Amino acid sequence: MSKPIIATASLAGCFGCHMSVLDIDDRILTLIDLVEFHKSPIDDIKTFSKICDVGLIEGGCCNSENVETLREFRKNCKVLVSVGECAIMGGLPAMRNGIPVKDCLEEAYLHCPTVDPADRMIPNDPELPIILDKVYPCHEVVKIDAFLPGCPPSAELIWKALVALVEGKPLDLTYDLVKFD
Ligand code: SF4
């Protein structure tokens, strides 16, 4: 029997949610028995060549490349999951949402005291992704099927959710797994 296929991506995130996947410790061996990883930073597969059963998304959308990646995941994954606060509500990167993009760029590249005066310029290479007016949670860009809260979600939560998703069972996440206090 073929194994369920999982893909993962980090958009505007810090890779902490991916680290939490690895935090399931030796159960990673069981997971590798249960599933096949496809496009993911975990195995460095960079392009989709098949439809995946579950897509795990870390981080929200702060630029055009994030939107493109997220849409590609929606197209290629039967179930798409927002993993962690950045994917669910923008998280820390969304702290810029109340500040105009122009002011953010000027502060980072022109006025920041740690920038060498000789290097003071706002990057403008046409190859760079376009920065969005704000950081968008994933569900405001594409349909998201499930949400795993936390910063990062605990390894236990990710494990239980993954097992349920690959077995096609409902996500029955108890309060102790999703509480923040
Ligand atoms: Fe990092 Fe937390 Fe965002 Fe996950 S939710 S990408 S751990 S900041």
Overall average residue pLDDT: 93
Q: How many strand segments? A: 7
Q: Radius of gyration in whole Å, from Cα?
A: 18 Å
Structural class by SSE content: alpha/beta
Report on this structure.
Strands 2-1-3-5-7 form a five-stranded parallel beta sheet, with helices on both faces. It has a two-stranded antiparallel sheet with strand order 4-6. It contains seven helices and seven strands. It has one domain: NADH:ubiquinone oxidoreductase-like, 20kDa subunit (Rossmann fold), CATH 3.40.50.700. The model has no long low-confidence stretch (mean pLDDT 93). By secondary structure, it is of the alpha/beta class. The structure holds iron/sulfur cluster (SF4). Iron/sulfur cluster is lined by residues 13-14, 16-17, 58-59, 84-86, 91-92, 151-152.
Short description:
This protein is an alpha/beta fold and about 180 residues long. It has helices spanning about 15-20, 25-35, 65-75, 85-90, 100-110, 155-165, 175-180; strands at about 5-10, 35, 50-60, 60-65, 75-85, 130-135, 145-150. The protein contains seven helices and seven strands, in the order E-H-H-E-E-E-H-E-H-H-E-E-H-H.
